[in-house]
Write a structure and sequence with these properties.
Helices cover about 40% and strands about 20% of the residues. It is α/β, with parallel strands linked by helices. The protein has one domain (about 5-150, about 185-255): Vaccinia Virus protein VP39 (Rossmann fold, 3-Layer(aba) Sandwich). Helix 3 links the parallel strand 1 and strand 2. It is globular and about 50 Å long. About 40% of the residues are buried. The chain binds S-adenosylmethionine (SAM). S-adenosylmethionine binds near residues 6, 55, 101, 102 and 121.
């Protein structure tokens, strides 16, 4: 999707990502996963396709130095607006950068980051290879790459729950769908994305589900207290089989092989889920 298209869906995305229960749950669940893997603040984090800063701002609040890179001036404007209501120290920890993620290294002058995030972006690209390569280039040895992508294994659930039976039948073997922003989105598998990371010396260390209950059920009139409880349930589901496998999107984290480990001799297996 090009820059102009993002300007036309920016408001819908802000609504979906922050105002909605789904958005709040997602930010919470991803933030908790990241805190399990990130080094302590003020480690430098690059958020590629960081949009309006829904993940970047909580990380800056936690003390991390965040570079939010995005190709859309409209989305960066939204991030700037949201940052304006943050305290000065949080604002000062976020740098906004307009660039294509595929050119992130040049745009950041070759800086290597302790973590590179790319959440909810790959699904809008026909081929994720160039962007994944760029993410892996920008991370320092031993650093973290964090990717959130649409789960190709669960595309039949949403049409089935909406009683669109023919669509559901087709979705079992589909690789794309019409996403919530009215844009065609492409799905990935954990295995396929893991393989792509390995090709760039990033060893997958853990994967999680994101959105199980919050995605499938309507939640009108939910209170703030219920959102907190729902987020706690979603976090547990995100870490366990079989729940994580049924989630709408997946969150995969990998670690760049440090110079001591030649590619292909990575010692750490993907973390087993809790039961
Ligand atoms: C759905 S939003 C996700 C925003 C944010 N990562 C989040 O999770 O809240 C997708 C963002 O990716 C950006 N984007 C899409 N393709 C990109 C690319 N090739 N390089 C940089 N940003 C891109 C869009 O401008 C948009 O802000």
């Amino acid at each position: 999707m090009d820059i102009d298209h993002w300007s036309s869906v920016a408001d819908d995305f802000i609504e979906a990502a922050s105002a909605s229960v789904k958005g709040q749950v997602r930010t919470h669940v991803l933030h908790q996963h990241l805190m399990d893997h990130l080094p302590g603040p003020p480690a430098a984090i690059l958020d590629v396709g960081g949009g309006a800063g829904h993940q970047a701002i909580p990380l800056a609040r936690a003390g991390f130095d965040v570079t939010l890179l995005d190709s859309s001036a409209t989305m960066l404007g939204q991030a700037e607006r949201r940052l304006a209501s943050e305290p000065g120290d949080v604002r000062n920890r976020v740098r906004l950068l307009q660039a294509e993620g595929e050119q992130a290294q040049e745009a950041t002058n070759g800086q290597r980051f302790s973590a590179v995030l790319c959440h909810g972006v790959l699904m809008y690209l026909e081929d994720p290879a160039a962007l994944v390569s760029s993410l892996c280039e920008c991370v320092s040895p031993g650093g973290l790459v964090s990717v959130m992508a649409l789960n190709a294994r669960t595309l039949a659930i949403l049409p089935a729950l909406r009683r669109r039976w023919q669509d559901a039948l087709v979705a079992f073997d589909a690789e794309t769908e019409d996403g919530v922003l009215g844009v065609r989105t492409r799905a990935d598998t954990v295995e396929g994305m893991s393989e792509l990371l390995r090709r760039h010396d990033v060893q997958p260390v853990a994967w999680y589900g994101v959105w199980l209950f919050a995605d499938w059920m309507p939640l009108p009139g939910v209170t703030a207290d219920e959102v907190t409880q729902l987020a706690a349930v979603e976090l547990e589901a995100s870490r366990r089989d079989p729940y994580r496998q049924l989630s709408r999107v997946f969150h995969l984290v990998g670690r760049r092989v440090s110079s001591g480990h030649p590619p292909g001799s990575h010692p750490r297996p993907v973390r087993s889920p809790r039961r």
